[in-house]
Specification:
The chain has 374 residues and is of the alpha/beta class. It has three domains: 139 residues, 3-Layer(aba) Sandwich (Rossmann fold); 123 residues; 74 residues, no CATH class. The chain has twelve helices and 19 strands. The strands form five sheets. Strands 10-9-15-16-17-14-18 form a seven-stranded mixed beta sheet. The chain has a five-stranded parallel beta sheet with strand order 12-4-3-13-19, with helices on one face. The protein has a three-stranded antiparallel beta sheet with strand order 7-11-8. A hairpin with a 2-residue loop joins strand 1 and strand 2. Helix 1 packs parallel to helix 12. The chain is globular. It starts with 6 loop residues before the first strand and ends with a helix. The relative contact order is 0.21. It binds flavin-adenine dinucleotide (FAD) and uridine-5'-diphosphate.
């Protein structure tokens, strides 16, 4: 990796190396370039966008290579920021879960309860049912506590227990509350997966949005470059690192556990495969869920493309695993990171936090702002 040195009338520009071209790296790169820095952006993959990368498959269907990515946020400043680089297609994600061979709305809502048990409860009736079956927990520490505390054991075992075991390789009792707390429980009939004020997909896809973000004369992009091979490179005023934090420190305290996935992409010669964007399989199969991309993108095509997600312990790091032990190990790396001069750590892997895309954009904007103000 090399980057030319340069001077402007106002003096030498700051030269920044940004490692990783996902949401975190692209936002920081753009912000710093807009502020007048020279940015060298590298990624070990051969494409930009990180895990939000999308592409058209051999049949011409737009797919999310690393699993379904649905953009949603309550932070207007984040959606406005990204709107500089993309137009949007309004999209509200819907999910069903298959239990005993039947599809139910998920998150659990009034229709889920009524269809599962053959009842006709109104909203107050469902609330009273939850009140009767819930197993109160205080404090609510684990993901098991979260679900038992709100809907009781039967719904926990039917919808959460086995999905969570499959997804994480751990029972909900060993995962922090925040994991299951991502999924609400409703007494009304709202069957949307998210209720955020802004829910939309980039009109021409995520990759096009990232291309627009990186279209700046101050940014040089190099793909297929691993920081491990480039870290000896001198001449940068600062590094912004968005890869796994334990790798940066050569796993000095041991590896931080990340959960991986294998994605099985399939194209089918039929217009529709399933009724909603994602169908979850908590109790059947080795995969957790199937997503049909045309629901998300609105693309019109005679065929359709789906992806099945198979969780794995080994492989590309996709999910930090939220547990007390892992948080304690991360804390040791975070202390090293804080003492590391000239390097900023930002993003889902570098902060070891189960962050959604909008949260990563927020972190990246904050990191760039503090660098610019320095
Ligand atoms: P990443 O996207 O992981 O980017 C990091 C980049 O750094 C990668 O491209 C990697 O190749 C590169 N890198 C790492 N190490 C090195 C190195 N040593 N040298 C060079 N390059 C390196 N969020 C939502 O908001 N909505 C969703 O619907 C959603 N669905 C998801 C589904 C799945 C299956 C997964 C895994 C995540 C999902 N997310 C979703 C979360 C979303 O993917 C992340 O919030 C976001 O992509 C994180 O961006 P990032 O830049 O921090 O990390
Ligand atoms: N979950 C579950 N059953 C489901 C869907 C989710 O038990 O049908 C639990 C599971 O532990 C999962 C967590 O809720 O990891 C968060 O779900 P979400 O859909 O937010 O996961 P992501 O899209 O981030 O993989």
């Amino acid at each position: 990796m090399s980057i030319a040195s340069g001077k402007t009338a106002s003096g030498p520009k700051r030269r920044i190396c940004v490692v990783g071209a996902g949401f975190a790296g692209c936002v920081v790169a753009r912000e710093l370039a807009d502020a007048g820095c020279w940015v060298s952006l590298i990624d070990r993959r051969l494409h930009i966008g990180g895990n939000a990368y999308d592409e058209t498959d051999a049949q011409g269907v737009l797919i999310h290579t690393y699993g379904p990515h649905i953009f949603h946020t309550n932070a207007e400043r984040i959606s406005l920021y990204l709107s500089r680089f993309t137009q949007w297609r309004p999209y509200e994600h819907r999910v069903q879960a298959v239990v005993g061979g039947t599809n139910y709305p998920f998150p659990i809502n009034r229709d889920t309860v009524n269809r599962l048990y053959g009842w006709d409860l109104d909203e107050a009736g469902v609330a009273a049912f939850f009140e009767r079956v819930r197993e109160p927990r205080d404090p609510v520490r684990s993901s098991e506590d979260v679900v038992l505390n709100s809907v009781g054991r039967d719904l926990y075992e039917k919808f959460f227990l086995n999905y969570t075991r499959k997804q994480w390789g751990l029972p909900p009792s060993e995962l922090k509350a925040g994991v299951a707390a991502r999924v609400p429980v409703r007494t009304n009939t709202d069957d949307r997966y998210f209720t955020d004020s802004f829910q939309a997909m980039p009109l021409h896809g995520y990759t096009r949005m990232f291309e627009s973000m990186l279209d700046h004369p101050g940014i040089t992009l190099q793909l297929g470059v691993d920081y491990a091979d480039a870290r000896g490179e001198r001449g940068f005023d600062h590094i912004v690192y968005t890869g796994p934090i334990d790798s940066y420190f050569d796993r000095r305290f041991g590896p931080l556990p990340y959960r991986s996935l294998r994605f099985e992409h399939v194209h089918l010669p039929q217009e529709r495969f399933q009724p909603v964007g994602t169908v979850n399989y908590p109790n059947d199969h080795e995969f957790t869920r199937i997503t049909e991309f045309k629901h998300l993108t609105g693309q019109v095509h005679a065929g359709t493309s789906i992806v099945r997600e198979y969780p794995h312990a080994e492989g590309e790091p996709y999910y930090p695993i939220p547990s007390d032990d892992n948080d304690a190990l991360y804390e040791r790396y975070r202390e090293l990171a804080e003492a590391e001069t000239g390097v900023t750590f930002v993003g889902r892997l570098a902060q070891y936090r189960y962050l959604n895309m909008d949260q990563v954009v927020g972190s990246a904007l904050a990191a760039a702002k503090s660098l610019i103000e320095r």
